[in-house]
Amino acid sequence: MEAKAQARYVRVAPRKARMVVDLVRGKSVARAREILQFSTRDAAEPVAKVIDSAVANAEQAEGSVDPDALFVKTICVDDAPTFKRYQPRAKGAAEPIRHRSSHITVVVATREEA
Predict the structure, then answer these.
(1) From CA 84, how far away is CA 96, in angstroms rounded?
(2) Structural domain boundaries, residue 66
(3) 108: helix, coil or strand?
(4) What would you report as the CA-atom Rg of the chain, rounded to the nearest whole angstrom?
């Protein structure tokens, strides 16, 4: 049994979010929550919320799924649109500032299925 959750347009750079996502890929949900709870990275909070949402989706779909039996089957971070702004610099120049954002996708499954 699989369940999927997505968070779109998260204001975290994909490169930074991938560093957090790599820590929990393939781990059990309980272990992933523990890792993210003690992570000092800002991207850990949105990743944890998406994992919790995927677990809730699994419980809604099946009804009697034990959250401890689930693990993070796939988790990925894709690029979302970038907000482009400009910062004034010396001698009338302008420097571009790119506020990057991400799409986070999580699929959780039971161990027997994998």
Answers:
(1) 7
(2) 2-110
(3) strand
(4) 17
d(CA 87, CA 80): 22
Neighbours of 15 (CB within 10 A): 12
Tens-place pLDDT, residues 49-61: 999 999 999 998 8
State the pTM of this model. Answer: 0.90
The total number of structural domains in the chain stands at 1
Residue with tokens 């419980």: 59
- The string of pLDDT tens digits covering residues 57-111 is 999 887 778 888 899 999 999 999 999 999 999 999 999 999 999 999 999 999 8
Which CATH number fits the domain that encloses residue 72?
3.90.470.10
Tell me the two tokens of residue 40: 């000092």
H/E/C letters for each residue in 52-98? HHHHHHHHHHHCCCCHHHEEEEEEEEEECCCEEEEEECHHHCEEEEE
Closest alpha carbon to 24 in 5, 48, 54, 56 = 48
pLDDT at 113 (0 to 100) = 52
